[in-house]
Amino acid sequence: MRRNVGVLGTGARPRSVLKAAAVALAGGLAVCACSSTQLGAAAVTSSSRITISTLTSQVANLNSAYAADRKKKIQPQRPVAQETQQVLTWLILFQVYDRMASQHHISVTPHQIQVAREQYAAQAKQSNVSLEQYWSAGGALPPALLPEIERAGAIQTALIDQLNGGTAPKTSAEQQAVDKALSHQQCLAAKSLAINVNPQYGEYDYSGFSVVAAPSTLAADPTPSPSASSIRRTPPC
User: What is the pLDDT of residues 41-56, one digit of tens each?
Assistant: First the structure.
């Protein structure tokens, strides 16, 4: 049975099945001469590096899409001036979804990816925008990463089927249970990746599965209570 695969990610966005997105993992990436494997990295996970050049290229791709969207009077729905963090969030999120697929022995087929693409296209049509506009303006996703979001959507749908015994949620309570189970599995996958973000770009927040601004160290409270940052850095799962 087909079920909608909503927008993945955080912040203002088109409706989503999985309430995905952002939180800060502790321990920023130390960019120093003592660790040459980390030089030039925007983030490092246990599976791969996300290079600064890749991040810069994808941010440029998103900003080009924003410029084209604005010419058609379509405004970005995500906070402005946060494109770098938003794009880095997506690049990390795709690794998290690949890890979930590996952990649950999910291998999506071209047909499943096509189904996800068609469902996203249908949602875009309902909003009277193109598929590219739906993702760039609605989700801060660079158009070049459309194949990645379609693959992630197919993985999400397959995991929903697996977690819910192959049946679609029929009530709001069942949907909430599925959302909770998905978030838990996403947290476990993110934790297993040991995500480290270059402090230049912020830190990884496990509660929302996104890259967020690192807290300022200026005028720090001399006797602080447990901070939101320390909570973000500790996987809640």
Answer: 999 999 899 999 999 9
